[in-house]
Amino acid sequence: MRNSRFIMRSLFIAIAMSALVLAGCAGPQRAAVAPPDQYVDSHFHIANYAMQGVPLKELIDKYMGDKIARSVVFPLPLQQKWDPYEHYAGDKMPPNYYMGPKAGMYYYSFIDAVVAMDYLKLSAADKARLDPMIVGFNPMDEYGAQHIRRMLLIFPGVFAGIGEFSVHKEIVGDKIDDDTVKSIISSDPIPPDVTDVSRNTLYSPALKNIFNFAAESGLIVNLHSDVYRATVTYDGKVVSMSPEAPYTAGMKNLCAQCPKTTVYWAHTGLGRFVKPASNHLAVVSEILDACPNWNVDLSWDLVQTFIVNPQPGMPSLADWARFITKYQDRVLWGSDTVIYTRNKIDDKGNMVVGKQMPVADYLAVKDILKPLWDAVGPDVARKVKVDNHVRLFDAAKVKVRAWEAAHAKDDVWNLPPI
Ligand SMILES: [Zn+2]
């Protein structure tokens, strides 16, 4: 009797303790983490290059449902110009993707306000499932950090980070409506990653300023920068590829200049044209080893296919599994879905106008890396799919909310230069 009372008492204490633990985790930022088959999407685009997308409430209810516990919300920073003189696609459909039209692109800052205002309409439970990011700034502009600061001050309680924004990116880098570095520079040395046509450089003091503000405010950074130079024309013809000369020094210089900034590098610098060279994982490892606060995301269906189904000369699935096991606390999964599809011309020459992506297409991306999860085992897979995001983003949000509280009285009309 005495024994069973002791057991009952122990059981009651255990239940009470679990309830306390659960209550402690049930705050708005933790409610979303969930069963083992769920994912957290660390790389997701709510809008395309024409600012077409889906409402956040619909993203949660229709797309994420019970499969994606939590997601970042990045629009794209750049608007594709629809230039009437180009007569793109014979004027039959507007461009809404960067590859195809010849016309340039420009930073569209208002998209950050669109995201913030939609986010503020959500319930607390829905807000806890999203991590909105600021994108509408030019990373080569010393005023870029001012836009980020203004967004935090006007929309406190919303943002967790900045990005995805691009420094080096095939096609995109050449289409940004901006000065080339060489046309402006006079007394400073020319940065080593700059060519005659480069608009962006990893060595820009403006980029350093933005990274340092991210560290000060706690914002986590999603940086897209191709691992090596790829020159591709606006309509997708490859001019040159330089896998033998990765941007390792530029990346290491950036993190050395801003060591306190928490960064995750989008799709380890890969993309449609920038395919993994045989030395890819050695290059990424070298950068991660030099940059303790940097992480990487494994996103974009094209890139994920290189991982599970590598072409000759690319790292094998076993190589990737070894890399991910070694850096298991620094890798995040993402879909890199752009939720509004492209306007296209089909095989028969018919125009197909883009639309909100079918839910099944969005959810299909999460299954691509299954062979990788099998190779690394459930514990490492869980870190990449869920835990690393939750740890990094929960920490970022606490710091950003504290920065916003400390600066609540700052005058957005009269911000001192950073
Ligand atoms: Zn992306």
What's the topology here?
Blueprint: H1 2-25, E1 39-41, E2 44-45, H2 56-64, E3 68-73, E4 78-80, E5 105-107, H3 110-119, H4 124-127, E6 130-134, H5 144-154, E7 161-166, H6 172-175, H7 181-184, H8 205-217, E8 220-224, E9 228-232, E10 238-246, H9 248-257, E11 263-265, H10 280-290, E12 294-298, H11 301-308, H12 317-326, E13 331-333, E14 337-338, E15 344-345, E16 351-352, H13 359-364, H14 370-376, H15 378-406
Parallel strand pairs: 1-3, 2-14, 3-6, 6-7, 7-8, 8-11, 11-12, 12-13
Antiparallel strand pairs: 4-5, 9-10, 15-16
Helix pairs in contact: 5-8, 9-10, 12-14, 14-15
The structure holds zinc ion.
Zinc ion (ZN) is lined by residues 43, 45, 164, 266, 336.
Main-sheet strand order equals 1-3-6-7-8-11-12-13
Radius of gyration: 22 Å
As a percent range, the share of helical residues equals 25-40%
Fraction of residues in β-strands: 15-25%
- Which parts are unreliable, with pLDDT below 50 for 5 consecutive residues or more? 1-32
Biggest β-sheet strands, sense, barrel: 8 strands, parallel
What does this structure look like?
- It is a single chain.
- By secondary structure, the protein is an alpha/beta fold.
- The protein has a single domain (40-406), classed as Metal-dependent hydrolases (TIM Barrel).
- The chain is 38% helix and 15% strand.
- The chain has 15 helices and 16 strands.
- The strands form 5 sheets. Strands 1-3-6-7-8-11-12-13 form an 8-stranded parallel beta sheet, with helices on both faces.
- A hairpin with a 5-residue loop joins strand 15 (344-345) and strand 16 (351-352).
- Helix 5 (144-154) packs parallel to helix 8 (205-217) and helix 9 packs parallel to helix 10 (280-290).
- The longest helix has 29 residues, at 378-406.
- The model is unreliable at 1-32 (pLDDT under 50).
- The structure holds zinc ion.
- Zinc ion is lined by residues 43, 45, 164, 266, 336.
